[in-house]
Design brief:
Layout (H helix, E strand, L loop, with lengths): L2 E10 L2 E10 L8 E9 L2 H8 L15 E9 L9 E5 L14 E4 L5 E2 L6 H24 L8 E3 L5 H12 L4 E5 L5 H7 L3 E4 L1 H4 L10 E6 L3 H9 L1 E9 L13 H5 L3 E4 L7 H14 L2 H6 L1 E5 L6 H6 L6 E5 L2
Parallel strand pairs: 8-9, 8-11, 9-10, 11-12, 12-13, 14-15
Antiparallel strand pairs: 1-2, 3-4, 3-6, 3-15, 4-5, 5-7
Length: about 325
């Protein structure tokens, strides 16, 4: 046992405090696998945890960071042995269980998946929860039965992490992708990922009518609130919308009109406690279907010491695509 560097959130009278400090390995939480973390990443939820802007952290002290890729150091789990490369997303890590912004993590082996064949640890974290969520959304649309022949697919929050990967995945699957963003300067970036059209998010973020003109057959929405209500109102008959985020808000000011007059389906995406079989299927599809050149084009890598300034940036919408944190 010894100490290692970690970003640690402690509770204070005014809220919470974030510090980069030594952490004692003996204080890691229960788990049957200890992992030497090599890479992590930055998601919207990480921004909330780092800043305390929302009560994401429910245990103090907490090491934030909901994703990691690393190497097994010790294991009492039958599926893993020292030296295995593994990936973790979700399961409350970084919220209720000590997380990824640390040199080491101890977790339940049932939460892990082997590093997918064809991906490096850094690429796996370029995907992270955001890209994994985008794939779960695409899988939900596929299971519903909507296809590119039915019409375009919309992606909201397109220049963010979920949105960027969703644009790339949908385009590669043959969809005519409409990318919604509030940053006109990102048009070339999004078209480089495969977007065919750019839609100003202002057209979606204000309260709208229960039904609007039918514009898309499918959508992946990471925004919620009035944006999701408008997306539903403009989805074509028998279309489907995968809802996976709440950047605008948790509310949904809509009516039953899209559902009972057009047969639109709202598909909820839970990326936190996805069963192991489905989780592995999603990662296998990511390794197979995601254009790694496009993944590289949407990714930047930062040092471990830079984590402290990332929270405010992602919440302010200043982070494009994916950010990998090089921990090792």
């Amino acid at each position: 046992m010894g100490t290692f560097k970690a970003w640690v959130v402690d509770k204070t009278e005014g809220g919470q405090n974030l510090a980069f400090r030594d952490f004692d390995e003996a204080d890691l939480m229960d788990g049957d696998v200890t992992v030497r973390v090599g890479h992590s990443t930055l998601n919207y939820k990480d921004g909330l945890a780092l800043t305390g802007r929302s009560p994401v952290v429910r245990r103090f002290p907490m090491i934030p960071g909901i994703d990691f890729a690393g190497t097994v150091e010790t294991s009492d789990h039958p599926d893993y042995k020292p030296g295995d490369q593994v990936v973790l997303t979700g399961w409350g890590v970084g919220e209720t269980h000590l997380g990824a912004y640390a040199k080491k993590a101890r977790v339940k082996g049932d939460w892990l998946v082997p590093l997918p064949e064809g991906l490096t640890p850094e690429q796996a974290m370029a995907v992270g929860t955001a890209g994994y969520t985008a794939m779960l959304s695409l899988m939900a649309l596929d299971a519903h039965g909507v296809t590119p022949a039915d019409g375009p697919a919309l992606v909201t929050g397109a220049s963010g992490g979920v949105g960027s990967v969703a644009v790339a995945l949908l385009a590669r699957a043959g969809w005519h992708v409409i990318a919604s963003t509030g940053r006109a300067s990102e048009a070339d970036y999004l078209k480089g990922l495969g977007a065919a059209e750019i839609l100003d998010r202002a057209e979606l973020e204000k309260p709208g009518r229960p039904l609007g003109k039918e514009r898309w057959a499918a959508a992946i929405d990471a925004v919620g609130s009035a944006t999701l209500a408008n997306v539903l109102a403009m989805t074509k008959a028998d279309g489907a919308v995968a809802a996976c985020g709440l950047a605008q808000g948790m509310d949904l000011p809509t009516s039953v009109a899209p559902f009972i007059l057009r047969g639109v389906s709202l598909l909820g995406i839970n990326s936190v406690t996805t069963p192991q079989k489905k989780r592995r299927e999603a990662w296998a599809r990511i390794a197979r279907d995601l254009d790694l050149d496009k993944l590289a084009s949407m990714t930047r890598t930062v040092g471990f010491e830079e984590v402290g300034r990332l929270g405010e940036a992602i919440l302010a919408g200043q982070v494009r695509g994916r950010t990998v944190v090089k921990v090792a």
